Amino acid sequence: MNIYSDSSHSAIKYLKDMEVHIKNLIIMTGDFNIRDSLWDPSYNFHSSISDDLFVIADSFNLFLSFPIEHFPTRFSDNSNDSNSVIDLMFLRCDSEEINSHIIHPDWRLTSDHAPLTISIPIVKEYISTQKKSLIKNSAEEAEFVNEVIASFSKIDASNIVNTHDLDDIVKKWADIVNYVWSKHSKFVNITKRSKSWWNDKCNQVLASYRLSKSIKSWKNFRKSVKHTKREFFDLKIQEIVNNKHGPWNLMNWVNKKKLPAIEMIKHNGSSCLELNDFWQALHSSFNSAQF
Questions:
Q1: What is the distance, to the nearest Å, from the Cα of residue 28 to the centroid of all Cα atoms in its chain?
Q2: Are the C-beta atoms of residues 3 and 31 closer than 8 Å to each other?
Q3: Can you tell me the distance from the alpha carbon of 47 to that of 12, in angstroms, rounded to the nearest whole number?
Q4: Which of 75, 76, 66 is nearest to 114 (CA)?
Q5: Are 12 and 54 in contact (CB under 8 A)?
């Protein structure tokens, strides 16, 4: 949260009076326009408005951050006025990585305020570029399903008398599925060009073309890809027609239609109020209304 509070401390008073609630606030920083000996070694007095600021910071679970090296944050153009520390930073109380900030007086250029910076560590995240997969309707998928069914049939599930027995049976089934899956599936690379219709035959004809580099192999590859795509999407269309009975659902511009604005209210198939009666009731209510 970035704050600018003028010389009348308007922002501080607003935050105190409005009791603003912001969850998961990590940093509150800005120009607070408050001089106080708590953060300015060259200033010997304490300001009462600082107490309100600490109450606000505490409500956000924040604490006052002290810089690694003390420098003024505002530089006066008037030689009679001293430089001051009025730009502050409050940080999250339960954070061990974020606990101090840096003042950069040499970065201010033509400004009279020095920038404040803080380093926020970002944990590296491993993103897998491979996954184990089985090609749909392939021989490997058929072997996987058959082996799972055969293994399930060998487990005796006829004597389940309590939840412990049930949990034990379910765990055995899960172990079987995991084992058979790892046995028959293979790793595939995940790329932005991954295609759900690609199969082993496409891999074979592509490898053949890369080996020979002939026009005949290229034409065979293109023909195989076209045939594979046609079979895949024809199957998808049949699935939608047979299961959902709505081939038009394939079109992204087909949406559920809104009800007409004059649709009558119905309950269990019967109208609760005929449209004509509704308008008569509305007209009568309007005439009897008192203004």
A1: 24
A2: yes
A3: 13
A4: 75
A5: no
Q: Do 108 and 169 lie in a common domain?
A: no
62 and 153, same domain (yes or no) = no
Q: Please tell me the total number of residues recorded for the chain in this structure.
A: 291
Using CA atoms, how far apart are residues 190 and 213, in angstroms rounded to an integer?
26
DSSP 20: -
- Give the residue numbers spanning the domain of 165: 126-191
Q: 99 with 175, same domain?
A: no
Residue located via tokens 């072997």: 143
The distance from CA 74 to its chain's CA centroid, rounded to whole angstroms, is 39
Q: Tell whether 6 and 85 lie within a shared domain.
A: yes
Q: Are the C-beta atoms of residues 35 and 86 closer than 8 Å to each other?
A: yes
- pLDDT tens for each residue of 242-290: 766 565 665 655 556 555 555 556 656 666 555 455 555 555 655 555 4
pLDDT tier for residue 198 given thresholds of 50, 70 and 90: confident
